[in-house]
User: Fold Sphingolipid C4-hydroxylase from Echria macrotheca.
Amino acid sequence: MANYTITSDLPPLPAYELRPMPNVLPFISDFWLSILSPHIAYWLVALFFHALDVYDLLPQYRLHTPEEISQRNLASRYEVARDVVFEQCLQVGMSTVLSLTEPGQMTGMEDYDVDVWATRIRLAQRALPAVLGVMGLNATAISKNMAASHPLLAGALAGGHYPFLTTQLDAVTGAKVPAFATWELNLAKVIYWFIIPAFQFWLAAFVLDAWQYFWHRAMHVNKWMYQFHARHHRLYVPYAYGALYNHPVEGFILDTLGPAISYKVSFMTPRMGMVYFVGSMIKTVDDHCGYALPWDPLQHLTSNNAAYHDIHHQSWGIKTNFSQPFFTIWDRLLGTMWKGDTALKYERTRAAAAKKSVPIANGNGKTNGSPKGKANGTPNGKANGKPRQSSKARR
Assistant:
């Protein structure tokens, strides 16, 4: 498809020819790359943090000790991995449907689009004389006075009138037509290549944050809905690859439907969507990693990070810090942000876990602990053959 546009005294818009955009990688189509890349990113980042866990490489940055992970969590690592893979299968299906609704991304129109923005900038300048007139300034007189020394500024003050800026339309006719100023084109490029994509990413993040906050909070307020969210809170001590450990209903509403809506609302291109989904997935994993790393950029871009979300996973903070995955604005506005010091609370849980992990010696010099959950050598984990007193009875 080709196009060529000339509009009155405005610079003409260039011809363009659309063609399919080449794939990012030569060995896989963008269609499948957009579907699989978020999940590949998920496991690459998750396995990095898992290696830190297994080999205890950065214990000084842990939010919880290894003893807390083994004692406080109510789901095994196998159960978590199984449910995450199932959730990702659902997301692959949803992503496939979403990708099929998108037309193939085309290229070749970029210069035309930049010139469209340059035209809008030129038209916007026509309001300058009126604006300056309201302020008591004579734009025409000012423009004439500085025409010789600052012709571009004079042209802008005159309402975007640049009679000295022309270009040859084509080599055959040699006709002269108006041209854009360099600053107009540069500003148009900044708008097209940076400001608009940045706004689209921000809008998508804002929509996703709002979607997840209100659904997430509702699942804590409504007892019927909490039955779906309760599975995620079986991890009192979050770790990286448990980020998507959810009930399928919750996983579809929060982590599948929400991102899809935010993508559609922001009118991103398929390639921008690929970056957005990969970035969102990495951020989600990072928020559950269990580490407060000083050199992790994702933990410093906003105050919504692993330490912030970890509070929500604790029994004493479960009714706070609902915001995820990007900002904390909804918690701030609606008064659900945790307030107060957490150091003492974390220290108590660490101490309790450490105390439970230390075997206690009995009268024979042997420890009460034994393999496979047996206590004092008795089956079924009963201590001294006597059942443990219930928590209600102890109270």
Remarks:
- The chain has 16 helices and four strands.
- Confidence is low (pLDDT under 50) at residues 367-395.
- The longest helix spans residues 182-221.
- Residues 87 and 248 are 6 Å apart (CA to CA).
